[in-house]
Amino acid sequence: MPGLIKWNHLKTNTVYTSLKIFIVLLLGLLTIGILGFSLLARVNLSDATGLFFDAVTLHQNPYFVGLTKVFEVIVVLFGGVILWFVVWSFLDLIKDGQLENYFKEVFTLLKADNLSNHYIICGAGRVGMHLADMLNEKNMKFVVIDKDITAVNLMQSKGYVALLGNSLEEDLLKQAGILKARGVFAVLQETEKNILLTLLAKELNPQLIVYSRSEKESMIRQLKLAGAKHVVMPEVVGARELMKDLKEEEEKIIK
Question: Which of 112, 115, 167, 228 could anchor a disulfide with 223, C-beta 3.0 to 4.6 Å?
Answer without folding.
Answer: 228
